Amino acid sequence: MKNIKRSWAEPYKMKMVELMKMTTPAQRKKAMKNAGYNTFLLKSADVYIDLLTDSGTSAMSDHQWSGMMMGDEAYAGSRNFYHLEEVVKNVYGYKYMIPTHQGRGAENILSKILIKAGDIIPGNMYFTTTRLHQELAGGKFEDIIIDEAHDPENEFPFKGNVDLNKLEKLIKKYGAKKIPYVSIATSVNMAGGQPISMKNLRELRTLTKKHRIRIIHDMTRVAENAYFIQQKEKGYEHKPVKEIVKEICSYTDGATMSAKKDALVNIGGFLAINDWDVYEEARNLVVVYEGLHTYGGLAGRDMEAMAIGIGESVSDDHIRARVGQVIYLGEKMMEYDIPIVKPIGGHGVFVDAKKFLPHIPQDNFPAQTLASEVYLDSGVRTMERGVVSAGRKANGENYYPKLELVRFTIPRRVYTQAHMDVIAESAARVYERRDKIKGMKMVYEPKYLRFFQARFEKL
Question: Is 356 a catalytic residue?
Fold first, then answer.
């Protein structure tokens, strides 16, 4: 009996199901062509298993749904706002909170308050909307993530760490007054869902405190990061995820939150801050861009679901199963020799399109090509995280990121292990015929965030 491996199982049971649509190869071919070979432009009705994103796609619990029925839809002073405010203080530790319709609403307000023309914003790898808001405010993002993060094969456990030497060089070059804050993401999305260690965060706090520079936390997947600290960092193996989450937040001065990820809701976010002056300005701006400071573009029922979801998100049982399902899929893909980012991240499996399709140059969009091929094979929708997502520099040149990835993003509490098997088998089938796959050319490019709406044609 000692040699029997114990499996984990989802810490929930199903009370309602949504029927899924099966499509034929001919139907998928037509749908993909109509979508300009951009998975974002597919109709959800034409998708079998949807791994486009984990943002707003999770399944809510019975407690959240019952909370929705308790929505106080008063225009001002909704009781659900005060509940959410209390939960943010208790779970994350931030002093002040302003709700927004989602994370980018918080990014917009924060950027307008803290960034002025010519400022430099260092961060542990860019995120698309975050960098764009920084640029629109007149700032420039500088990547200070450790070099290991740009190597998909490197198995360093905390590839979200900041390279403190890179940050110090920026401070010497531009001066601390030119750096309004350091932008820190927990579970770095563009690196493959890679976590930052508590040790690195503490060291960063010491350095920024010395130079009086804020740390602003992109905390959309903070619970997943906390789980990796619990599993991989010495001294945290016996601490509950909830305690680790609060410690992470304690080393930062504020945060933007897209609650559509960790907090298990379909819409919502917030800006949290410890500085009264920043909070006061944010209260003014939220009225302009989102709604009154006690609803921020959200219905009372949405704030209530968010408050409940935050509590559920830091449960050890929940986060163990959530990350466990991602790891299961990643390990299945490795069994088929599919090249993925290692170690496996928290919210999805990131396939290395450069190694999957080495004959396709970045100018012909290998990750975009691979995402479309997976859909054509099985109806599984994924998304590109490479040169298309990276966008263009101010001079019009493409950014060419070292990582050219396809993200297989797992919604929380939605799919079963059998779905993971179907996904891995589809990727394996495409891998078998990889030498015959050709790249694409872009035939339509929008001005901002082109990966959402760009259109392509096969070469």
Answer: no
